[in-house]
Amino acid sequence: MASADPAEWHEQISAALEVERFEVDLFRSQSLWVPTRARGVFGGQVISQALVSATNSVDPAFGLHSLHCYFLSSASASTPIVYFVERLRDGRSYLSRAVKALQNGRVIFMMMCSFQKPEPWQPSGQWGMPSGVPPPEECQLEEDRYAALLKHDGVHPKIQKIYREFINERLRSPIAIKVAVENDTAIGSMPRFMYWMQARDIPAYEAPFQKCILSYMSDLYLLGAASRTLGLERFSKGPNATSMTSTIDHSICFYDDTFDCGDWLLYVMASPRASSGRAIVYGQLYSRNGTLVAVTTQEGVVRADRRGPVEAKL
């Protein structure tokens, strides 16, 4: 049973991802979490719950290798989300599933995912892990970083309130986050932002659930890399202030079945293009030993606090 306090229920990643099966291919969320100052339920939770639902319909001999999803509308935390899994194809090497998330009679999210029988005898290669990144033991937890900012002189009371909200959220999150590299900008290249992420206090889960946890992680801070690349500020006013960010679509490709989200993963993010109120971000997740575990892509609405020309009235 869910805790009376959704925030407490969300502190355990296993609880945050849990769904109830009430028909063969129908599942229902057990808890939903809205981040501080967000418009709706955290997208990573919706992705991971949809993936848990899809994985329950798949032969364990097949492992998830990719997912692609669209966020059609913000989800409310006041009503459970129902996940409908459609079995599109069961082949000898690949299986395909579609998941529709419904709330209050409307489709709010759609995901396609594909599962493969592993072929470890095939050749492999990868982009190397960025060099010079400090290990997680030398980096500061986000809640500690905000606590240090609170001690600075002259912090406006409204900003102090925001910092305290983020500290509380980070302390209660099932995912620990540390800034690894604030802004890695080489001459002539795009800025990169790097974070260490770890699921707090989890047992040694098997690969299918590890991928569900990573899917939850993959939505943390990702679209923020686009705002930061554009130089938009979160807590200010004017043309360089962020007025809105919201995910449109999200994808993950997995290339490893041995990673552990209970250990630190390095999330490297870069946003190569933004225009017309949209931006795209690419991400790579590396295990501590340098294995490129997964590659992510996300496009979202990224708007500054600027108004377009007024349309003439007929």
TrEMBL record:
Domain Acyl-CoA thioesterase-like C-terminal: 190-302
Gene3D superfamilies listed in its UniProt record: Acyl-CoA thioesterase, double hotdog domain (2.40.160.210)
Keywords annotated in UniProt: Hydrolase
Domain Acyl-CoA thioesterase-like N-terminal HotDog per the UniProt entry, residue ranges: 33-116
One Gene Ontology CC term in the entry: peroxisomal matrix
InterPro entries: ACOT8-like_C, Acyl-CoA_hotdog, Acyl_CoA_thio, HotDog_dom_sf, TesB_ACOT8-like_N
Swiss-Prot/TrEMBL GO biological process terms: acyl-CoA metabolic process; fatty acid catabolic process
One of the Pfam families matching this protein, by short name: 4HBT_3
Keyword check for Protease: no
Record GO terms (molecular function): fatty acyl-CoA hydrolase activity
Family: Belongs to the C/M/P thioester hydrolase family.
Protein name: Thioesterase-like superfamily-domain-containing protein
Organism annotation: Mycena rosella (Pink bonnet)
